[in-house]
Design a protein that fits this description.
The complex is a heterodimer of chains A (431) and B (183). Chain A is built from 14 helices and 22 strands. Chain A has 431 residues and is an alpha+beta fold. Helices cover 21% and strands 37% of the residues of chain B. Chain B is built from 3 helices and 6 strands.
């Protein structure tokens, strides 16, 4: 009785001609492909769950999703973080319906099955009415196959065969560390999570954060205008800023301007950093590159904005809808007033009322809205920007291209295509 | 925010009626300014030391309800000063704020108004309920509903200014792609 429902798999290869920068739009709206990506992209991948600083003492918990699967992340009495499917083994109801908190046990409010913070089933009401062969120890909460942290970020996967987390992050860590290693003490998150819905396929957002600096000058023209010192808009050299965009073979991407000064950070935060010390610590290439500003995506659905202090997950909610969960990241050593400046800057720029985020939301929902027509929904999209310009530049590790490029988007979709066409570990179960 | 309405209804005297009418009319004017996208005029209703705050609402176990509304210093939907609201409004006036071009249609409904004396002389606390309906482009609809608690301050010329506003939006996951108006 372990048989999973099997659905036919579709070869997604024909939707792509990435050597020529072509992608068929069907991948953003097809319900069958969406179900396939839950099985072959989300289930086998490392997915972001939470930040370590959300768990201070045993019993602290946070509930989130992996793909569309609800999960509980909790610190056990041994202070170890674990993650479980948030579903009672009896009838499948969520055993925890709070966003966060502290508890000794998760008790299903349907029939009262109760689980401790290590996932063990500790109480079954009317247990005497179960047959003799009922083995209570076999009915604990379903635990993720692997859970690990990278410099405060908690990730997990259902895939027992997934490589270790740090291997799965690949060459992106050099870029990611420009955010996570600014402070020798590490990072923490501000209390609370911004959550909002977007009527768009999750890949629209993940792709943009991997690759798309191109939209900034147009989509965010109004935000750039009010943020510029003159109030009239950024100088031409900022609009035309050079930069690089990293493309990882595992689907990750990170883009950033390269400039000794160009940055869109908060003044208080800017003044707090000792840039000479950062140069010693992280090297000139990172201070003048990924620390200037920019964006990144850890494949598949975790993205970050280093200078805005935003880390976020694009939770898939069907082919046409995602839910954005965004945390505010600060450096541990920052004085309280600097942390608060970062928090406020983040919510005013990239919260759901943020002057950048408002326009992003409009773009993604509009892209999705036109994806349902037969002609519009199956047309070929152009991902050719920067084709043939990717190289090893000797400064930034791995393959990089120009800032204005679809390079990391092509890398993101190459990885997505390959996973969609590769049987996942769970398909090898032949029972 | 710390003061609560008296258990009994305020005695119905002329001053109370006058105050209640004044506040209710101010809120109707405010709603009209927002719905007409006259944000610079709207901002004139606020005091210079304004704190305009909309915390995030979380689902908590019943015994941990004290944590259900975000605290100061946590992630918030709005955490604004008069200057930062002006900054947001300048963006709308840039002619390039695409999320509001074409503009949304909104209707702010303000009701359940209760007013009582505040902690400082010349200040009042006013609670109200709001429902903001947003209709956008062809068929997009968002509804923002919740409660507001304002501290109102009597000015030297006899008017009222909003010095504090706390907005409790009755949603956990914000069921909209953004909030491109004010509440």
């Amino acid at each position: 009785m372990q048989q999973r429902h099997r659905e036919p798999y579709v070869d997604v290869g024909p939707y792509f001609d990435l050597d020529h920068g072509l992608i068929n739009r069907t991948i953003f709206s097809d319900a069958g492909l969406y179900r396939q990506e839950l099985r072959r992209v989300f289930a086998p991948s490392w997915l972001f769950l939470a930040h370590e600083s959300q768990f201070k003492k045993p019993g602290d918990f946070f509930t989130t999703y992996m793909g569309e699967d609800p999960v509980i992340v909790t610190m056990g009495r041994d202070r170890k973080l674990r993650a479980f499917l948030n579903a009672c083994r009896h009838r499948g109801m969520r055993v925890c319906r709070a966003d966060a908190g502290a508890t000794k046990a998760f008790t299903c409010s349907y029939h009262g099955w109760s689980y401790d913070t290590s996932g063990k089933l500790i109480n079954v009401p009317n247990g005497g009415d179960y047959p003799a062969h009922f083995e209570q120890e076999r009915w604990g909460l379903i635990e993720v196959a692997q859970l690990d942290t990278y410099k405060g970020l908690v990730f997990a996967t259902w895939n027992p065969e997934a490589p270790p987390l740090v291997e799965a992050l690949g060459g992106l860590v050099w870029y990611l560390d420009a955010m996570l290693e600014r402070d020798p003490e590490g990072t923490e998150v501000v209390g609370g999570v911004h959550k909002w819905v977007l009527e768009g396929n999750w890949k629209l957002a993940a792709e943009q954060f991997a690759s798309d600096w191109y939209h900034v000058n147009i989509s965010h023209a109004s935000a750039l205008m009010v943020m510029s010192p003159t109030g009239k808009g950024p100088k031409t050299e900022i609009v035309q800023t050079p930069g690089r965009q990293y493309t990882d073979p595992l689907g990750h991407g990170h883009g950033f301007p390269t400039h000794p000064k160009s940055r869109f950070d908060d003044r208080v935060v800017h003044d707090w950093y000792d840039y000479e010390a950062l140069r010693d610590r992280l090297g000139d290439a990172r201070v003048e590159g990924p620390m200037t500003t920019g964006h990144g995506t850890v494949f598949p659905n975790f993205s970050y904005l280093p200078v805005n202090g935003s880390i976020r997950v694009w939770h898939p909610k069907g082919p046409d809808r995602m839910e954005v969960w965004a945390w505010t990241l600060v450096d541990k050593s920052m004085p309280e007033e600097v942390k608060d400046a970062q928090r406020i800057y983040n919510l005013r720029t990239f919260g759901p009322t943020g002057i950048f985020e408002q326009d992003d939301g409009e773009n993604w929902s509009e892209c999705q809205a036109t994806a349902h027509g037969f002609v519009a929904g199956s047309m070929t999209l152009n991902y050719q920007m920067g084709l043939g310009l990717q190289e090893e530049d000797g400064v930034h590790p791995g393959t990089t291209g120009r800032l204005y490029s679809d390079g990391a988007a092509r890398g993101f979709y190459a990885r997505w295509r390959d996973l969609m066409n590769t049987p996942a570990w769970h398909e090898k179960d032949t029972r | 925010m710390t003061t609560h309405p008296p258990d009994t209804a305020p005695s119905v005297v002329d001053d109370d009626i006058r105050l209640h009418f004044e506040v209710q009319r101010m809120y109707a004017v405010e709603a009209q300014l927002l719905d007409q996208h006259r944000y610079a005029d709207w901002l004139e209703l606020f005091a210079d030391d304004l704190h305009y705050w909309a915390p995030v609402r979380t689902n908590r176990l019943r015994r941990q309800q004290a944590l259900a509304d975000g605290s100061p210093g946590e992630v918030a939907i709005f955490d604004e000063t008069k200057a930062s609201l002006a900054w947001r409004i300048r963006r709308f006036d840039s002619g390039m704020a695409w999320a509001e071009d074409p503009p949304s249609r909104t209707r702010h409904l303000i009701t359940n108004v209760l007013v009582w004396a505040g902690e400082q002389p010349g200040e009042y606390v006013a609670e109200s309920a709001f429902l903001c309906y947003r209709n956008r482009l062809e068929r997009e609809v968002d509804v923002y509903a919740g409660g507001r608690t304002d501290v109102l301050r009597r000015t030297e010329d006899g008017g009222l200014l909003i010095a504090r506003r706390t907005i409790l939006l009755d949603q956990n996951v914000l069921l909209a792609k953004n909030i491109s108006t004010f509440l």
